[in-house]
Write a structure and sequence with these properties.
Length: about 425
């Protein structure tokens, strides 16, 4: 009750500011479409309930665009108060020096929310022993599949493939029965590579994935990476894997699946709500399963993806307090339940999970269950904690370009070696100038 009183007291203090003198807060995010509308409705709710604060929300483009815009704006003296930054931008955000470590800023009596995050989320975002940002939209990849196509192909609609080999066998059967034009799709994106690296218990960078000390070496030319690329290339060569031809084309992969051109798609848990609606509208039964992993390995777990909310420094005290009030409200138990139901992103707070379980949400909506079970079954170690790499966005581009070169016929060993050298140079250059 004391904690609740403190939160309410802070909200009332800021909510009843001097008449006509609202505290103005700016919030930048990277979501378009339905998520953008969802955020805008939530901000309207907050502004209505907190008459002394006015949050202005603005869509700034992709994750990369949003981070770059925030850094530029800060250098120009016009930084927004709150910025959504994707998980692989965490090291760069810290190095930029424009943000306040959130755990240092939140008063002791309000830190109970920081203690409420589910372990896999806390495992990723607790950097150097503390939270630098507020976890918000968290996800991992799962397998979506068309149960009707599975039945048509003679596959078990309640038993999706769990390994690389099982995916290949399912594709052979789908092609043989002509149950679908293509077997499987997912965006050509490094995020999936990072997940499959973690599933093998391998690291993407030295110094314990950059968690024990700053990463100075990237492991692209590795056996774990070779397993992934070899399987991916085999699917591509046999015509089983389909994508739009463009890197990071999430919408293109989704369209291939929901239009029933592909029987399966590997993509983010954040698309569960969209997939359920699309399956209904396109007249097929949707199934979900764990991310397929390389054969012969023990499933290790996935890395939390998505983004968190960062608080920029240098604003007047009343604006910092107002921004903090919004952050804690926007990510509280009730709003995390709403966010999960409206998108499929994880309910990142233990209290949110309890509410959903009390409502029998997962039993009534089994498509959401696979993602959450997969997350909770992940082992807590450096592999699943995820890598901290300064120029991570650039490393992702290098990996994605390497995959495309392999599709075009480049030898896998040569492609891995060259990509590794490019990544090493990018990391060396960043560490020399980007700290």
């Amino acid at each position: 009750m004391k904690r609740l009183a403190v939160v309410l007291g802070l909200s009332m203090l800021l909510g009843f500011a001097m008449a006509g003198e609202k505290v103005q807060i700016t919030f930048w995010h990277a979501f378009g479409g339905g998520r953008k509308a969802f955020i805008e409705r939530a901000v309207q709710d907050f502004n209505f309930m907190h008459p002394g604060i006015e949050v202005k929300v603005e869509y700034k483009g992709s994750y990369r665009d949003t981070l770059n815009a925030a850094i530029l704006a800060a250098r120009q003296g016009s930084a927004p108060h709150i910025v959504q930054i994707f998980e692989v931008g965490s090291q760069m955000a810290i190095d930029s020096g424009i943000f306040v470590p959130i755990e240092d800023y939140v008063p002791a009596d309000l830190k109970f929310q920081l203690d409420d995050y589910i372990k896999p989320v806390a495992n990723y975002y607790r950097i150097g022993g503390k939270f630098n940002s507020i976890p918000w939209n968290s996800s991992n990849p799962i397998l979506y599949y068309n149960k009707d196509i599975f039945k048509k192909a003679g596959l078990d609609p309640e038993n999706p493939p769990k390994t690389f080999g099982e995916v290949m066998k399912a594709c052979e059967q789908i092609e043989a029965t002509k149950a679908a034009p293509k077997c499987i799709t997912w965006p050509l994106h490094s995020w999936f590579v990072e997940q499959w690296i973690a599933e093998q218990g391998a690291l993407l960078a030295n110094n314990e994935n950059g968690r024990a000390a700053r990463a100075t070496n990237v492991y692209i030319d590795s056996e774990a990476m070779k397993r992934i690329v070899t399987w991916w290339k085999d699917l591509y060569d046999k015509g089983y894997y389909a994508y739009s031809g463009k890197p990071e084309d999430w919408d293109g992969a989704n369209q291939l699946f929901v239009s029933q051109q592909a029987a399966m798609e590997i993509t983010s848990t954040s698309d569960v709500t969209f997939m359920q609606t699309a399956a209904f509208e396109n007249g097929f039964a949707l199934g979900t399963g764990f991310l397929p992993v390389p054969d012969g390995i023990e499933r290790n777990g996935t890395v939390v993806g998505g983004a968190s909310l960062w608080l920029t420094k240098g604003h007047p005290d009343e604006e910092m307090e107002a921004a903090l009030t919004f952050l804690l409200w926007f990510t509280n138990t009730e709003n995390m339940v709403r966010w999960h139901k409206g998108t499929g992103y994880f309910p990142v707070l233990n209290t949110s999970v309890k509410v959903l379980e009390w409502q029998n949400w997962f039993e009534r909506n089994p498509a959401y269950r696979a993602a959450f079970d997969q997350l909770l079954q992940s082992k807590a170690n450096r592999a699943t904690q995820g890598a901290l790499i300064g120029p991570f966005p650039e490393i992702r581009t290098i990996i994605e370009n390497m995959i495309q070169e392999v599709f075009q016929g480049k030898d896998i060993d040569k492609a891995l070696k060259e990509a590794d050298a490019k990544a090493e140079k990018a990391l060396k250059d960043y560490n020399a100038t980007g700290k």
